[in-house]
Design brief:
The complex is a heterodimer. Chain A contains 5 helices and 5 strands; from the N terminus they run βαααββαββα. Chain A is of the alpha+beta class. Chain A is globular. In chain A, 32% of the residues are buried. The radius of gyration of chain B is 17 Å and the shape is globular. Classes of the chains: A alpha+beta, B alpha+beta. Strand 1 of chain A pairs antiparallel with strand 1 of chain B, so a sheet runs across the interface.
Chain lengths: 195, 171
Amino acid sequence: MFQSRGSVGIVDKPFSRQGKQEVALSSFSYLFGEVVQYCQSRVSNIGELERKLDEVGYGVGLRLLEVLCYRERAQRRETRLLDMLKFVHSTLWKYLFGRQARDLEQSNTAEDEYMISDSDLFVTKYVSVPREMGHFNPAAFVAGVVRGVLEGAGFPARVTAHYVPVKDQARPKTVILMKFQHYSAIMQREQRIPG
Amino acid sequence: MEMINAEIFTLTYGSMVRQLIADHEDVEEVNAQLDKMGFSIGQRLIDEYLAKSKTQRCSDFRETADRIAKVGFKMFLNTTATVANWNAEGTECSLILEDNPLTDFVELPEQLGALKYSNLLCGVIRGALEMVNMDVECAFVRDVLRGDDVYEIRLKLLSSSTEAYPFKDDD
């Protein structure tokens, strides 16, 4: 599809700085603000805006899965659902936010739904949602990243981000809801894995 | 300054450029869009720069270019640039960047040879300088993604004016 032009392909270059390079939070915030503004100019309602942000996050997630599996997990990618969820909850979150996520829980109502919750994600630190936009959640970008990671690993899911108010806390926490598709097929696949 | 992992920044920028390419058919339109986005970022970034670096007014263009390369790039991208290739009047110079955090992991395919991937940076510099009353032209002349060995931004001062107060003293 796309032909590479360089003599040294991108995959042959060494991972020189091993993920330790840092950049100012404000640079990311400016960039994210521009991304949201750009998406806003091309859509007509909130649902589409969240979907556009999810698309942007999806591309990031797919590539993050490769980088993280190569670097952190000794080049092994998780194949079981629960291990994958733990990977998202600890390794991915630690890479993105410097700490593990607050909670990982399974929904009471449906067995194919899981939730990861956290508060004060830096992604949305400088984004304020006007009242006219209702329940729009810019953490749809984070949901897209998680969706990219899960789908890249073979667990297709619909991932969305929601605000849930918490007692004794001024700001609501963000809940990333993951609804796995073909859950029974995934469970059957796991049964077939030995060990 | 709060710092985050640079790779998220790089990957988000890449994802954004991918969206732009998918939405626009013409590569030149993507370049223009990147420049426009950079411009509005620059207009806001200058406030943060001035607040955090607590610098006095730059005396001339040379100092401006030097500050951008040493302080500005360091503050926001955690990398430094060098200033070189001044012209005789001191109104044009080049900023040379060895590594560019926007382009880690990036390879340009043949079809997108005309894409100025890091054009956002040019817009940022232009926008920031406009808010301090300096009109500049800013463009990439050498780009590692297109086969060169460093990134070179050519910075040209068009005009600079003194502060214009928005009110008249007589009223």
